[in-house]
Each structure stands twice: as C-alpha cells, then as structure tokens.
Amino acid sequence: MNAHPLNTHPVLAEATRGGIVESFHRGALAIVDAEGTVHTALGDIERPIFPRSAVKVLQALPLVESGAADRLGLTDEELAIACASHGGEERHARTAAAMLAKAGVDVDALECGAHWPYNDAALKALAAAGTQPTALNNNCSGKHAGFVCLGCMLADGRDVAGFLRGYVKPEHPVMREVSAALQDSTGFDLSATAQGTDGCSIPTYAIPLRHLAHAFARVATGVGLSEGHARAARRLRAAVAAAPEMVAGTGRFDSRVMSQLRERVFCKVGAEGVYCAALPELGLGVAIKMDDGNTARACEVAMAAVLRRVLPLAGDDAALVDSLAQVTMRNWNGIEVGSLAAAPALAGD
Amino acid sequence: MNAHPLNTHPVLAEATRGGIVESFHRGALAIVDAEGTVHTALGDIERPIFPRSAVKVLQALPLVESGAADRLGLTDEELAIACASHGGEERHARTAAAMLAKAGVDVDALECGAHWPYNDAALKALAAAGTQPTALNNNCSGKHAGFVCLGCMLADGRDVAGFLRGYVKPEHPVMREVSAALQDSTGFDLSATAQGTDGCSIPTYAIPLRHLAHAFARVATGVGLSEGHARAARRLRAAVAAAPEMVAGTGRFDSRVMSQLRERVFCKVGAEGVYCAALPELGLGVAIKMDDGNTARACEVAMAAVLRRVLPLAGDDAALVDSLAQVTMRNWNGIEVGSLAAAPALAGD
Questions:
Q1: If you count Cβ atoms within 10 Å of the first and of the last residue's Cβ in chain A, which end, N or C, has fewer?
Q2: Which distant-in-sequence residues (6+ apart) come within 8 Å of A42 by Cβ?
Q3: Chain A: nearest CA to B229, how far in angstroms?
Q4: How high is the pLDDT of residue B346?
Q5: CB atoms within 10 A of CB A329
Q6: What's the rounded Cα separation, in Å, for the pair B163 and B168?
Q7: Is residue A225 classed as helix, strand or coil in its secondary structure?
Q8: CA geometry: angle at B199 spanning B216 and B153, to 5°?
Q9: Distance (Å, rounded) from C-alpha B139 to C-alpha B116?
C-alpha cells in the first residue's frame, strides 16, 4: 500500500482544530526565473501535472498577439475575463456577452457548457428569478469568449459562427493557436505528454511544475517569449490589474490579492489544487500542485505564504496577504473552531 | 519539509484524467471486531483524530437508552434523523421540527446555528421562495433535536426550555450524557485527549481510528456495550434502515447504500474526511480518516471499496456498491473526463 510513486511530497498546508492538526495537504512547488533557473523546489517538480485553469493567461496570449483584441476593441474588463475562472456573477455574464457581440455571435457560440454560478449570491438570485443558468455563467465563459474573438479573427471573412463550430477540439485552428502558445511559453512538448479533457471541454496537457513556473516567469518579464507574446503578456497583466474583479469575483482570492497588489502579482487558480503566479518585480514564476486536488483552501494559503515570503510587503499589502496565509475557521454560530495555514516550513517559521 | 509526523499513510483513493493520476488521497483505515481484534490496519490507527459527525449514532445512544425516545413516541424517521447529517430538505426540516414539538419546544431551542441547505434543490427552493434558512435546515438539526428530546427527559419536571439552554456545552447534563456514551462505546478516555468545537458547536473529542472502529463493531453486535446501549444501538440501526433518506438525503452516499443494503450496513460520514461503519453480519466496525479532510469524494470511494471487499454482495447490492467505488467524472457538457476510484491495493486488485 505504501509503494505509491508520489510518496515524498511535503506538507504545504494544515488545518488545526482543538490544538491539533486535523487535516493536512501535501504538494509540490516550483519557483523559477525567466532563464529557467530553479529558485525553490519542493516535492517532484518534474512530474507532468494538468495545470487546468491556472494557465488561462497563457491560453489568452493569441487573443492579443493575433490582433483580435485590438480589432474588436476589447476593454480591460474583457481581457481580464479572458484569463478568468469567474463566479458567474451578473457582471461576469454581461462582460462575456459583450465580447461575443463584438465577435458578431451570441451565447450559442459558446461550447463550455452551462452550470450554476459558483458565486453564492448569484446562484440564489438566479433561483429567485426562476431562471436557469446559461453558458455565460460558466466560470470559463470569459476564456471561451476570448477563443471566440480569436476565432472571429482567424475566420478571415468566412462565416464566423460556422468557422467556430468545434473550437474546443485540439485540431481546430483556434485551439491549435491556443495550444501553440501554451507550448511556446512553457517550453514543453505537448505532443508527447498526457492529454485530458478539461471541465469546459478544451484539451488540458500535463506539464511539469518547473515548466509552468518558467512560463509564468516569462509572463512576468517577457524574457524568452516572442515579441508578440511578450507584448500580449504585458497587456493581459495590466488588464487584470485594472479589472481584478473580472478574473475571479466577489470575495475570491485572486481578485482580493490583485485588487490590493495590482501589477505586483498576477496569480491564477486552477482546478484540482493548482496555482500559478507571475511576480514581475522579482522576475519569478510560481507553480503549485496539491496532491489531493484541494484548491479552495490548501492552495490559497500556500500561495499566500509564498507571496509573503518572497515579496517585500508592508502595510495593507502585508496585512491582506497575512490574512490569506492564516485563515480563522468559524462554525455556523460564528465561534472560532480552528485555523487553516501554510505549513511552518513553507511559511518560513 | 519532509519531516512531518504523518508521512507514512497509504493512498486510499485516486482521481484519474487523461490516463494519468491527477490527484490522490492518503489516509488511514481500521477494521476491528467487537472483541477489539484489529482485522485491517492501514496507516496510523492509534493517532487520535476528530471523528466529527461520523459518531452521531454513538451520541444518540442516550436518547434511546434514557427512555426519552419511547416516552416521546419517536418514529423511525425521527430516530434516523437523530443520527443524521442531512441535506436540509423540507422533509428533514419537518422531521426535526416534529421532534421539537414532542419535546414541547420550537426551533428557538436549537443551538446548532442556521445554514443554507446542503441539498442543491432545497437551497434553490428556499431562495426562490425568498426565505432564509433556519436551524432546522442545519445538517445537524436532527442530532440536536435528539439532544433536545434527551434534555426534555433529563429536565425531570423543570422548565424544559430553561433547562436546555447551553446544552451544547461540555458541562451541560445533556452533553455529559452524550460524551459518556461516546467514551463508553469507544473505550477511550475523553478527559485526556484533544477537545475541539464542532461545526454545530458541540464538543468533538480526538479518538484513534482503532477505538472508533471498535465502537462501531460494538454497535454492530451489542457486544461490549451496556444492555441499555446495546438495545439502543439495535433500535437506531433498525430506524436508519427503515428511513435511510433521513440520515443523509437525496442522492447521498449513506442514504443510497442503506436504501439498498438496509441493516446489512450502517455507515456514516463525518466532516474532514471521516467515515465509520458497522457491519452486523460480520461483527465488524470500520473507521477511515483521509489526511486531507476530503469527505465527499475520497472517503466515499474508499468506504465503498471496503464494503465491496469485506461483504458478500451480489446482484443489485454489488452493482450499487461497485458504482460507488468507481465513479465516472463528467464535465459540464456531460463528456467523460476521468474517474475517481479506491486505490488498487484497497480495492483488492
């Protein structure tokens, strides 16, 4: 039973109750610079893992680089939501719909599927209105709207809706562009690695944490990217910093961090316990994968601890990140029952 | 970073996507008989862990043993919900309310706090009606209604509402009875172990998996329990088998298993990745704790794999448990993207 290939990963986050560790999360972490030098490696950073939604900014590079964003006059909010896993709030649905309108199509063009908003108030508002969610409420609708806008450019005069059909398939021209950007920025051969299907139906490719962190260092600096991708990365980082509520939503980690730290951090969550970040002032990229796939709690406190440790932070910046690195857990009566925190070694204690 | 005291636990469940293990869950497992003989031990089964809601049947023993259940004429549904972590569906709220009425009090007596129903349809129905949840929708409202009924008996002529106040505190006569039953059935000294506060505000005590599994073997057989507790355990098992939808709810693991297998299995989930089960025909108790606290997916497939391995099952019984031990994961478009299953060694492959 103990002979699992993945048995050496350190504990990155712990939940404490009644003075003891109740649950704990193991994982791996890479911090890499734009030259590819590994600054920190915890656990196995060479094993390919599915980055899921953590790489949306890499998948959005062609939207800007192709000229589609300029041609359609995409706003900061629209570019930010192209990199987002959002809560399906009304403002998110409206922004994604506006992108589709600019591309000359409507919600029927989206191939991500529909689900109820992740944002609790948005879900209850839809239920109270007696309506059903659409693909616009899907947390990936902005990314897909970005694919649609890219497709509108690539259609090159052909019927856009017809051209777009099947854009989630690996062999479609849109997805070929998206995957090429992923391969170029990570420097990892996607043709030779495991390929799965993501929640929103596009392909996801298994990539080592070292390569993911390297890609985010490139996004942070532009170094090692083509001129077009470097410019696109800068534009996307600026857009998210200007409209951080679009990349996640009310009360969410990524939106809170970037509302406070703006362009000092670009961070992005992915399903199954993945987190990536670009830190421009340090020229570093960060990539985390929790063994157990726990995103909401384990990854967030680990990422907050990394930010606190490597970035020089003070005042409100430090206070926010501290509050995200050690979270008090309260029960239904508001009584403090425990805490969630990065493991001592990760937090630098 | 690797010197965590809990670094030897085996992988019990795996999530697979694109042909590779995407995420995996480590944990510990004990299977013990009523004499205390350990039949299976995976990981550290001597480390005290918080059993959370997995021990509700042990905490309900005084409700029956005291005579309160008989005096108030509690039904199978009411006894079943006293052992439940339910979805807050209308039928659950109604059943808990009926228990309170029998005790001569109302929802104001409940000290578990209010939260929105865990059941998705119930949550949306409340939102659509423009109403707020009450403590009756709390997943623990049945357990607390059971405490209230016990308190009604213990009040012994005093004003019930006044006597009940503060029943969630360890030193209240109600909670003293409940904790004594937990100590008696597990054979573990609760005065010398870590004590935390549970989500519903009652104390939770850290108890080793070996003791928890032993307690469930006692519940399965009556052996090693007082005559009163043995009778109470039989009554509660029968009640849950007769009204399995009360112990969890629509589509939930415990309700599905017990709707099919009835008294052959008593199983109960607890927060932070805990599962316990009593298997009367084998005279065994089972206790599982996932390191990472993942309840919904990791624990369920592990428990299903244990049931499949130790119980002689055929036909629909085998089919149901097989379907719970290996779960196909689909995305928002209904496309199969992976599977969740017990680790090969646990599944007996």
A1: C
A2: A9, A10, A12, A27, A28, A29, A30, A346, B1
A3: 28
A4: 82
A5: 16
A6: 12
A7: coil
A8: 65
A9: 9
Q: How far apart are the first and last CA of chain B?
A: 33
B2/A contact by beta carbon, under 8 A: yes
pLDDT for B295 equals 83
Helix (H) or strand (E) holding B340: strand B336-342
pLDDT tens digits for range B29-88: 999 999 999 999 999 999 999 999 999 999 999 999 999 999 999 999 999 999 999 999
Taken in order A345, B1, B7, B12, is the CA torsion positive or negative?
positive
| Helix pair angle (B120-128, A120-129), 10° resolution | 60
- Centroid of chain to Cα A104: 27
pLDDT at A5: 53
| Whether A138 contacts A113, CB under 8 Å | yes
pLDDT band of residue B4 (cuts 50, 70, 90) is: very low
Mean pLDDT of A28-53: 97
Closest of A34, A50, A239 to residue A146, by C-alpha: A239
d(CA B220, CA B39): 15
A146: Cβ contacts below 8 Å, ≥ 6 apart: A60, A63, A79, A81, A82, A99
What are the C-alpha distances in Å from B64 to residues B175, B178, B179, B235, B279? 15, 11, 15, 8, 21
Per-residue model confidence as pLDDT tens digits over B120-137: 999 999 999 999 999 999
Average pLDDT over residues B159-166: 96
Q: For residue B262, which amino acid is it?
A: R
- 3-state SS class at B68: helix
Q: Which residues contact A241 (CB under 8 A, 6 or more apart)?
A: A258, A262, A263, A266
The first and second tokens of residue B344, run together, are 């090969």
* Chain A positions in Cβ-Cβ contact with residue B20 (cut-off 8 Å): 48, 194, 196, 206
Residue of A118, A204, A205, A332 best to disrupt the B interface, most CBs of B under 10 A:
A332
Here the ipTM equals 0.95
Nearest to residue A56, comparing CAs of A214, A269, A220? A269
Separation between Cα atoms, residue A277 and residue A288, nearest integer Å: 9
DSSP state of B200: T
Among candidates B24, B22, B27, which has minimal Cα distance to B10? B27
| Rounded Cα distance, B259 and B257, in Å | 6
Q: Let me know the angle formed at the C-alpha of B274 by A15 and B222, rounded to the nearest 5 degrees.
A: 140
pLDDT of residue B265 exceeding 90, the answer is: yes
Is the predicted pLDDT of residue B5 greater than 60, yes or no?
Answer: no
Instruction: Please list every residue in chain B whose beta carbon sits closer than 8 Å to the beta carbon of residue A111.
Output: 333
